[in-house]
Specification:
By secondary structure, this protein is mostly helical. Helices cover 46% and strands 8% of the residues. The radius of gyration is 22 Å and the shape is globular.
């Protein structure tokens, strides 16, 4: 009986400390030390929240840079992140990639003469692990730059400069790959103007 009481007491104390106390302490610390990140890294334009730096959203108009495909349902649903979980031998993956590549060729082809399927970056046709990755590769941004510049009637060099300004390097110079945050880039484009 003594062991049972000790076990129940240990469960109650550990649940209170590790299940409630520690998370509350870390949340409080993060709110004070890193208020922007703890609040969801929200991005505001003219006082209105337009999204988060951490979650992709759908951009479909030709005048904007587009994000990578989403695996969530509905697409870009930050409340239900998921991944496609399709392996390299999956026929569903091959079908999805083929359809996405055809859409990219149709959209970007008129602005990138001679564009072939082999020049399309992999992140343009595949989903990320979360399904809502907010970044695209610099290669995918470069592919879209000609379209965005043409539709907005901006010099290509101006758009390329914005892409470079909105490209984040590797974490600590060696983790991960460089990425371009699509929401921040599109906000910068809107501030610049153009059609």
């Amino acid at each position: 009986m003594r062991n049972l009481v000790s076990s129940v007491l240990a469960i109650v104390v550990l649940t209170a400390v590790l299940g409630f106390g520690y998370p509350a302490l870390m949340t409080g610390f993060a709110t004070v030390a890193f208020p922007h990140q703890a609040g969801g890294s929200l991005i505001s334009v003219n006082g209105k929240v337009v999204g988060s730096k951490l979650a992709a959203q759908s951009f479909t108009w030709p005048r904007y840079f587009h994000e990578r495909p989403s695996a969530t349902s509905p697409a870009y649903n930050a409340a239900a992140t998921t991944f496609a979980n399709l392996g390299p031998t999956s026929s569903d993956l091959a079908t999805n990639v083929k359809a996405a590549a055809a859409a990219i060729l149709k959209l970007e082809g008129p602005y990138n003469p001679g564009l072939t399927i082999h020049q399309i970056p992999v992140d343009a046709v595949t989903t990320s692990a979360s399904g809502i990755d907010p970044d695209i590769s610099p290669a995918y941004a470069a592919l879209q730059s000609a379209r965005v510049a043409a539709v907005r009637h901006l010099p290509l060099a101006t758009v390329q400069k914005l892409v470079k300004q909105n490209t984040d390097g590797r974490s600590w110079s060696f983790f991960g790959e460089p990425g371009v945050n699509v929401l921040e880039l599109n906000i910068a484009l809107d501030k610049l103007g153009g059609n």
